[in-house]
Design brief:
403 residues; alpha/beta; Serine Threonine Protein Phosphatase 5, Tetratricopeptide repeat; Leucine-rich repeat, LRR (right-handed beta-alpha superhelix); Pdz3 Domain; 3 domains; seven-stranded mixed beta sheet
């Protein structure tokens, strides 16, 4: 076998950013007996380190940006490395370069902006990200479409990072059986329960897109936590339960662009919230269960929000589900561990009365139960196997997650 190895060293002086730079590259040529030659070119930068002042001059940055259009590979690579190190400081000149560059240089500039944005965290000013967003909206076809592709890739990356950091903090993220207005949502949701008060991971909520549902539970829930969750880009349905939050703590909800449904239960929100709720971007439903809002407050709220469905409950929970469109209130499901199960109610029982209120459909049962608080005792009259029976039930509270 014939094997030959030859190293060819090339020494170049490059003028970059107004300074002479020493660059050494070498070519390794390997020849084997079958006549195939493999050529590998490697650029080395021994001891290369551009002197960086604490605040690089604008002229230096502009020169580096100009080198991105060089026809020499080494010049372009050195300039890219230095601009990447400068990060946010180089962004204004990079954005300006897009306006006057050819397609090839524009591509290099956008790659740098994407690299800078990828290095940002929620704790940093989003300089690179904002620059890409500006280019997306610029209307220039090539730059705008390329910037759009970059932001799409970064959005996926940011989502994954946020999900990882929040999961590490003990926050449940994913498909959940969280209950909103007596029904499991069966959607991906963010569920914060028994928060430990650590504010460090909260900034990541702003990067957690694609989640429309969030539930906050426990006395540790604070206005700061609520403000962080409200920054979720796609949040539309929010449950707040078993908290000590008052009306003033709800202020971050004003920052939302849209909220389809808000449910507050077992929290000391009072009539001072009436005007506040009327200022929220609510679209469909407001559910108030076991709050301190009075019937007069609810009446005022309904006059202020005539297009919104407002459900007002004292918070008692029976723990049954009946077919909503059936002609009779036939129990189709009994909640495990709920008040109905403890009292002996079963599936296929037909509820005909709650206390003194007649029940024909499931909606009648719900309206009747709304008038009772957790711990109240109420007589439930029902039909089982053709016989009318009655049982006294001590109502419970609606749980956030079904077992």
């Amino acid at each position: 076998m014939v094997f030959a190895l030859q190293k060819i060293w090339m020494v170049r002086w490059l003028s970059i950013a107004g300074e002479r730079r020493f660059v050494r590259s070498f070519r390794t040529l390997s020849t084997v007996s079958n006549g195939i030659a493999l050529i590998t070119i490697v650029a080395l930068l021994p001891g290369h380190c551009m002197a960086q002042a604490d605040s690089p001059h604008a002229e230096t940055i502009r020169d580096l940006v100009a080198q991105l259009g060089s026809d020499q590979y080494v010049r372009r690579e050195l300039a890219s490395l230095e601009l990447a190190k400068l990060g946010a400081e180089a962004v204004p000149d990079l954005v300006s370069a897009v306006q006057r560059s050819d397609l090839e240089q524009t591509e290099r500039v956008l790659q740098l902006l994407q690299r800078i944005a990828a290095g940002e965290t929620p704790f940093d000013p989003p300089v690179g990200w904002d620059a890409l967003q500006t280019l997306v909206k610029s209307g220039r076809t090539s730059a705008s479409s390329r910037a759009k592709a970059a932001t799409n890739a970064l959005t996926v990356r940011r989502h994954d990072q946020a999900r990882e950091h929040l999961s590490r903090a003990g926050i449940q993220i994913g498909f959940s059986n969280v209950v909103m207005e007596s029904s499991s949502i069966n959607e991906e949701a963010v569920y914060v329960k028994d928060w430990d008060g650590d504010t460090t991971p909260l900034a990541w909520f702003g990067w957690l897109d694609r989640f429309q549902y969030a539930a906050l539970e426990g006395p540790e829930v604070s206005g700061e936590l609520l403000a962080a969750v409200a920054r979720m880009p796609d949040l539309q349905h929010l449950l707040i339960t078993n908290t000590h939050l008052t009306t003033s703590d709800l202020a971050p909800l004003r920052e939302l662009n849209r909220l389809e449904q808000l449910e507050i239960r077992y929290s000391p929100v009072d009539d001072r919230a009436v005007d506040f709720f009327s200022q929220l971007p609510l679209r469909q439903k407001l559910v108030l269960s076991a709050t301190k809002i009075t019937p007069d407050g609810v009446k005022k709220l309904r006059s202020k929000l005539p297009a919104i469905q407002i459900v007002y409950k004292r918070g008692g929970f029976l723990g049954v589900i009946c077919e909503p469109w059936a002609a009779e209130c036939i129990i189709s499901r009994v909640t495990v561990g709920g008040a109905a199960e403890a009292a002996g109610l079963q599936t296929n029982d037909i509820v005909i009365r709650i206390g003194e209120a007649k029940v024909q459909r499931f909606s009648d049962l719900q309206e009747a139960i709304f008038n009772y608080a957790p711990g109240d005792e109420v007589d439930v009259t029902y039909i089982r196997a053709g016989n009318i029976e009655k049982v006294s039930v001590t109502l419970g509270s609606l749980v956030t997650q079904q077992p």
